[in-house]
Amino acid sequence: MRHCGTLRSGVGVKGGVVSRAMRADSERTALAILEAAERVLVRNPAATMAQVAEAAGVARTTVHRRFASREALVEAMSAWAARRFAAAVEEARSDTTPPLVALYQVTANVLRVKIGWGFAMSRMNSADPEVERIHADVREKCLRLFRRAQEDGVLRADADPEWARRVYYALIHEAAEQGRDDGDTDVLATRVVDTLLRGVGTG
C-alpha cells in the first residue's frame, strides 16, 4: 500500500509538471499569435484570421480555438498592449530614478511599445476599465516625474506640469509615428526629451 501511495504521489508531481509545461506552451502560442497579428494588421487592417495564422506559423483552427473571432483577437491584442504600456512605465522606476535619467528611460520604453504594438495601441477602448485605470496611473506617474524634475531644476520652476505632460505626450506620438519607418528608439527618445527641455528655438 505504501508503494502504491508513493507511485500515486510521483504521478501527481509528474502530472503537475506536464500541466505547467502545457500551460506555458499554450501561452507561448497565444503570444506568437498576438505578435503575428500585430505585424499583419499594422500593414493591412483588413487582414483575415487565416493570414494571421499563416504569419504565426499555426493552423487557422489554432487561432480560432484561442480567439473566437477577429474582434476577440483585436481586443486581446489591445489588452496585451495596454499591460505592456503600463510595464514600460513601471520598469523605468520613475519615482526613484534621477528625474532626467527616468525621463529618457520612460520615453524609450514607451516608444518601444508604441512602435512595436502600434495597431493594438490604436485600437484600445478608452471605456474599458483596465485601460482607463492604466492611463490614469501613467498620467499620475508622469506628473510626479515632472514635479520631481522641477525640484531638481530639470524643468523650469514656473512650468505647468499638466501642460508639459500634454506636450510630452504629443512629442511621443509624433516620434512613434516616425519610428514605424526608423525604429531607433534611443535616438527618438533623445530627440523627444531634448525638444521637451530645450525646444527648437535659439532664445
TrEMBL record:
<dbReference type="InterPro" id="IPR009057">
    <property type="entry name" value="Homeodomain-like_sf"/>
</dbReference>
<feature type="domain" description="HTH tetR-type">
    <location>
        <begin position="27"/>
        <end position="85"/>
    </location>
</feature>
<keyword id="KW-0238">DNA-binding</keyword>
<dbReference type="Pfam" id="PF00440">
    <property type="entry name" value="TetR_N"/>
</dbReference>
<dbReference type="InterPro" id="IPR036271">
    <property type="entry name" value="Tet_transcr_reg_TetR-rel_C_sf"/>
</dbReference>
<feature type="DNA-binding region" description="H-T-H motif">
    <location>
        <begin position="48"/>
        <end position="67"/>
    </location>
</feature>
<keyword id="KW-0804">Transcription</keyword>
<dbReference type="InterPro" id="IPR050109">
    <property type="entry name" value="HTH-type_TetR-like_transc_reg"/>
</dbReference>
<dbReference type="GO" id="GO:0003700">
    <property type="term" value="F:DNA-binding transcription factor activity"/>
</dbReference>
<dbReference type="GO" id="GO:0000976">
    <property type="term" value="F:transcription cis-regulatory region binding"/>
</dbReference>
<dbReference type="InterPro" id="IPR001647">
    <property type="entry name" value="HTH_TetR"/>
</dbReference>
<protein>
    <recommendedName>
        <fullName>HTH tetR-type domain-containing protein</fullName>
    </recommendedName>
</protein>
<keyword id="KW-0805">Transcription regulation</keyword>
